[in-house]
């Protein structure tokens, strides 16, 4: 569990919530909406930590008995509700409604976290709505969602919305270096590939991607002048093992992106392929912005196509050939 001060990003949500605690104007229900893996739950836990702490400050002390019980996951006024199977069911919401009826057992507030609130089954959502419509002053709900548009509008309107943005690359990279002790170059590549999603960054780090990262980057920077037989071989290599092609496509996307950034004069520290700067400069002179945008479209399209079980090898061949053609057309 973290305190507000331990969370580096999401400055606006943190300050909004701490100000509400300080002014004793904590809402009955919050909807934390934003992309996955950015730490919405950590912020919710920091909020609940403050509300459950015996000292009544704007963040948990982690020294009092209540904080210790909260950290150990045994505080009686704290509940987490998440999908049982695919959905959050009406029985779960009914149990919760009973709890909401009674005053807090240990402290001043009852804190209820609803994880992936978009999984509320329709009947469960309607039952929850009734509970939200009759707020008790001592209950605080936090609903987490990555897809707010799937929630009942009536539920959304009952909650104070708190928006979360994706983490920036520098934050992801520094967290990776700090928590996993990885080298700066590796941290920056993984950060670039994670789209501001910390969970995805950890998964990427644990995958064998890093072992062949340099190998593939080395290949991809030669792509604009590679022979057709090389490209066909690479397509085979990229798809020889299950789940390998996706990181390769991602490295490809970052390569084209870097070429565009170099063409736009963005400083090298923003680049994923920093160590290949001379090649990037060379390629940036050989492709128009228009072609680069087309390439990015093509790469993003590749993700969609493969979700429908298309043939990854054919897709990789097509991608490599198209990219190579774009560079030679624009010379
Ligand atoms: Zn405390």
Give a structural overview.
With about 325 residues, the protein is of the alpha/beta class. It folds into three domains: about 5-165, Rossmann fold; about 170-205; about 210-330, Zinc Finger, Delta Prime, domain 3, CATH 1.20.272. Helix content is about 55%, strand content about 10%. It has helices spanning about 10-20, 40-50, 65-70, 90-100, 120-135, 155-160, 170-180, 185-195, 200-205, 210-220, 230-240, 245-265, 275-285, 290-305, 310-330, and strands at about 30-35, 80, 110-115, 140-145, 160-165. Strands 2-3-4-1-5 form a five-stranded parallel beta sheet, sandwiched between helices. Helix 5 (about 120-135) links the parallel strand 3 and strand 4. Helix 4 (about 90-100) packs parallel to helix 5. It is elongated. The structure holds zinc ion.
Give the topology:
Blueprint: H1 11-22, E1 29-33, H2 40-52, H3 65-71, E2 78-81, H4 90-101, E3 110-114, H5 122-133, E4 139-145, H6 153-158, E5 160-163, H7 169-180, H8 184-193, H9 198-206, H10 209-220, H11 228-240, H12 245-263, H13 277-284, H14 289-307, H15 312-330
Parallel strand pairs: 1-4, 1-5, 2-3, 3-4
Helix pairs in contact: 1-2, 4-5, 7-8, 10-12, 11-15, 12-13, 12-14, 14-15
The protein binds zinc ion.
Keywords for this entry:
331 residues; Rossmann fold; 55% helix; binds zinc ion
């Amino acid at each position: 569990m973290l305190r507000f001060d331990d969370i580096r990003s999401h400055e606006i949500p943190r300050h909004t919530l701490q100000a509400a605690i300080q002014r004793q104007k904590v809402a009955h229900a919050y909807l934390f909406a934003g992309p996955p893996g950015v730490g919405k739950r950590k912020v919710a836990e920091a909020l609940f930590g403050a509300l459950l702490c015996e000292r009544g400050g704007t963040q948990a002390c982690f020294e009092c008995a209540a904080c210790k019980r909260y950290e150990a996951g045994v505080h009686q006024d704290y509940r987490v509700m998440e999908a049982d199977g695919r959905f959050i069911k009406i029985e779960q919401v009914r149990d919760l409604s009973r709890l909401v009826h009674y005053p807090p057992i240990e402290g001043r507030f009852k804190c209820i976290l609803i994880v992936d609130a978009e999984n509320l089954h329709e009947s469960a959502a309607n039952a929850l709505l009734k509970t939200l419509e009759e707020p008790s002053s001592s209950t605080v709900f936090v609903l987490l969602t990555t897809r707010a548009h799937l929630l009942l509008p009536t539920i959304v309107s009952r909650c104070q919305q708190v928006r979360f943005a994706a983490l920036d690359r520098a934050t992801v990279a520094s967290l990776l270096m700090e928590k996993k002790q990885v080298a700066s170059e590796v941290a920056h590549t993984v950060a670039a590939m994670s789209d501001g999603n910390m969970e995805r960054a950890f998964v990427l780090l644990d995958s064998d991607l890093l072992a062949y990262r340099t190998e593939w980057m080395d290949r991809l920077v030669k792509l604009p002048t590679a022979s057709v037989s090389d490209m066909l071989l690479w397509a085979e290599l990229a798809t020889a093992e299950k789940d390998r092609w996706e990181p390769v496509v991602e490295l490809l996307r970052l390569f084209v992106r870097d070429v565009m950034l170099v063409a736009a004069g963005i400083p090298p520290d923003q680049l994923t392929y920093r160590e290949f700067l001379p090649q990037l400069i060379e390629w940036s002179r050989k492709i128009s912005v228009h072609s680069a945008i087309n390439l990015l479209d093509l790469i993003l399209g590749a993700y969609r196509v493969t979700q429908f079980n298309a043939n990854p090898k054919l897709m990789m061949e097509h991608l490599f050939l198209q990219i190579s053609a774009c560079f030679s057309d624009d010379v």
